[in-house]
Amino acid sequence: MTRDEEPSVAPADDPRPTPAVDRRRFVEDALKACAAGCPLILAVMRLPAAAAQRPAGEAAYDPAEHLYGMGIDIQKCIGCGRCVAACKAENDVPLDGYHFNTWVERYVIDEDGDVTVDSPNGGFDGFPPPAAESEIRRTFFVPKLCNHCANPPCVQVCPVGATFSTPDGVVLVDEQYCIGCRYCIQACPYGARWFHPTKHVAAKCTLCYHRLVKGLVPACVEVCPTGARIFGEVEQRPTPLARFMRMNDVQVLKPHLNTRPKVYYANLDGEVR
Amino acid sequence: MQGYIYPNEFELQWSLLIVLYPYITGLVAGAFILASLERVFNVKEVQPTYRLALLTALAFLLVAPLPLQAHLGHPERSYEIFLTPNRKSAMAMFGFVYAWYLTVVLLLEIWFEYRKDMVLWAREAVGWRRWLYYGLTLGATDLSDPSLKFDDAAGRWITVIGIPSAFLLHGYVGFIFGSVKANPWWSSVLMPVVFLFSAIVSGIALVLILYVVISLFRSRPVDMRCLDKLASFLFYAMIVDVSLEMLDFVHRLYESEESIDILSQMIESRLFISLIVLQLVLGTLIPLGFLGVFSPALHRGLARGSDELRRLIYLMSAVLVEIGIFSIRWNVVIGGQLFSKSLRGLTVYKVELLGLEGLATTLVLLALPFVILWVLVKVLPPWEEPAGLRRLDGV
């Protein structure tokens, strides 16, 4: 039966259910089915993404099966500093203004092309309005963290091998082994390492390795309200990071130093160093 | 603070103690190179300072690892550098370069040089001194002609090995800085060479100062031929050193890489006193001028003052040179940390007075080699005077 053949009004004495009622029921049922089925469908659709964001459970975790990296979409970062706060809480980073695994920089470029960069308390408390003297041409936020370089100068210089690259591509420090010479801090071109004031060893972003092995994403990624940080596998195709890298022109910081970072920036401005 | 620096850059990581480390190893290498002048290159004029230079090198080498050790976050783990060195790390080689230089070069050379005297002293001395010297000979008491000839030949060969080793010791320290590609102030292939020549300069100046001052205290005449030669070599070494530094400077200016603006700002503000005033004017130009005029380096001296005047001028020039070389170390180590790797800002360094990495520790560590040298000179008098040897009175 086509829509044109349908009677516009059902006879009152007709015992059969009217087609209009049929349609209503059908629509209702369909909506119910949808309501019930949507989460399932969405879950199925998100399965590869979830698999990438959440590595297998702790017992089954095999670092050789992964190679992690992070994508950062500059246009999405609003400078709220939630990532900085989450990182400090998660990783027991001193709450002063001199020790950060991750921080957020604000770039303000005025009409004359002069660039002002600031990062008050690492962006922990967000940012006050910029005190620009002339008109602002552009402004943007840049989250920074350890780049977990594939060719890490910090690992190269460590005299005892206390800092190392894991098979899953994370640069870590063995704090039971570090002698505290701080050569690695000097060798990092990104200022990503710091010296722990009480443990007296080099410290840095671990990509929340303790979370990765439990199938969780890094704390900064977890709390980012705008999805400016994208975590995932660098080499496997069906992951958010791989998609991010396909869909954007990505760049790394200080590429001329050949450190081969695994933190990839989309919409990165040339002023960022 | 000025401009923008990464938040983790507020704290300077390498402090005054790390300034001291290349300064001290430089003195070691320089003193040894000076000693080798007599031994290998047959510059007989500097003979009076030969043994003194060796003992000076040893005294300073014994102290060289202390500032490093004191600076470590976990000094109790430092032995790991020997047990599990990371073969890709320049710093991991420190232990091996140091051990090689200390044992194979310095101790062996001093032993061969002093063996004959130690045997004689052991025979003449009484009581514990007798046993001390006998112990130091390691039981090799043969003073026959062939064995003395062997001592001499061995000493010569060790010096021949020692020269590249001294180059290695200090060139390697320069490499530790020069190989940090993250830091445009350090990253330079010239760094090891500049370190080496500034080391030679500082070593010659130190031995010159020690020779003059010790002679004064011992009321012995200073051998002016020796002093003139030392002053001439100091002048030549400084010319090479300054040329290399100028080459580095001009190269940086000419290449004008992205770091040039912030580095220029740093030199004009933070490093003005230590680089322009202390290193360049006081530590280089003034002593170069005085040495050029009064030492026989250039055409037997442009102006020939009295011995007294020349002694004074050499001594003053050598002291200025030491200040200048210390400033070089400061400008490298501290200067390399005063600008942000974002190349957008400068930070400051305030020396703490007390504390493990403070001024007090630095002064103690600087004084320590002189105490060790005093003991060494007492035990192994470097003076080749029959009377002095007989009386075993050292200084």
Please give a structural write-up.
The complex is a heterodimer of chains A (about 270) and B (about 400). Chain A is α+β, with helices and mostly antiparallel strands. Chain A has one domain (about 65-265): Alpha-Beta Plaits (2-Layer Sandwich). Chain A has seven helices and eleven strands. Chain A has helices at about 20-55, 80-90, 155, 185, 210, 220-225, 240-245; strands at about 70-75, 100-110, 115-120, 135-145, 165, 170-175, 195, 200-205, 230-235, 250, 265. A four-stranded mixed beta sheet of chain A has the order 9-1-11-10, covered by helices on one side. In chain A, strands 3-2-4 form a three-stranded antiparallel beta sheet, with helices on one face. In chain A, a hairpin with a 6-residue loop joins β7 and β8 (about 200-205). The termini of chain A are far apart. Chain B has about 400 residues and is mainly α. Chain B has a single domain (about 1-390), classed as Formate dehydrogenase/DMSO reductase fold. Chain B is built from 15 helices and two strands. In chain B, α7 crosses α8 and α9 (about 225-255) packs across α11. The longest helix of chain B has about 35 residues, at about 145-180. Classes of the chains: A alpha+beta (about 270), B mainly alpha (about 400). The interface of A and B includes residues 158, 177, 183 and 189 of A.
